[in-house]
Amino acid sequence: MTSMPPNPVLEPLKPLVGEWTIRVPTFEEAEAAVTCEWLEDGGFLRIHSASPPPFPTATQLVGRDDSSDVYTVLYYDSRGVSRVYQMTFDNGLWKMWRDAPGFDQRFSGTLSADGRTIQAAWEKSLDNETWEHDFDIIYTKVT
């Protein structure tokens, strides 16, 4: 079997690769493990979070069309929830968003200068006009 070369449009995502812990300050006791790893020799990025109950365990697959600057994220979790997000990652600014009738979401995170933490937040909107803060999330790189 011939291996594929890494997908060059995914190269900017390299700072995300590794083992992380995530913490949601609203839920002080909740901490989850997140693994970001290449699939298919760098053809895709897989983001997998293993969360304690009652929070969902989730997998995201990230890829990008050669003709676009926006990544596509396929999300699926232990609740059976399936979503498609759009994503950018530029100079340490990580954004994801989803426009869906009745429940829009957006995520914004900033990678620290040393690449060891990401301070982020999720927002939600029920009408695509009025946005409210959902929760903060802090990523800390383990390896």
In terms of topology, how is this protein built?
Elements: E1 18-23, E2 31-39, E3 44-50, E4 58-64, E5 71-77, E6 82-90, E7 93-98, E8 104-111, E9 117-125, E10 131-141
Antiparallel strand pairs: 1-2, 1-10, 2-3, 3-4, 4-5, 5-6, 6-7, 7-8, 8-9, 9-10
Brief synopsis:
This protein is an all-beta fold.
Would you mind describing this structure in some detail?
This protein is mainly β. It has a single domain (8-141), classed as Calycin beta-barrel core domain (Lipocalin). Helix content is 0%, strand content 55%. It has no helices and 10 strands. Strands 1-2-3-4-5-6-7-8-9-10 form a 10-stranded antiparallel beta barrel. Strand 3 and strand 4 form a beta hairpin. The protein is globular.
Q: What is the architecture at the second tier of CATH?
A: Beta Barrel
CATH class: Mainly Beta
Q: Any idea of the CATH topology?
A: Lipocalin
Describe the sheet with the most strands.
Answer: 10 strands, antiparallel, barrel
Which outline best applies? globular
Compressed to H and E, one letter per element, the order equals EEEEEEEEEE
Q: What do we call the CATH homologous superfamily?
A: Calycin beta-barrel core domain
Overall helicity: under 10%
Strand adjacency order, main sheet: 1-2-3-4-5-6-7-8-9-10
The secondary structure category is mainly beta
Low-confidence parts: none
Report the portion of residues in β strands: over 45%
Number of domains: 1
How many helical elements?
0
- In round numbers, the mean pLDDT is 95
Give me the Rg, rounded.
15 Å
Give the terminus-to-terminus CA distance.
Answer: 30 Å
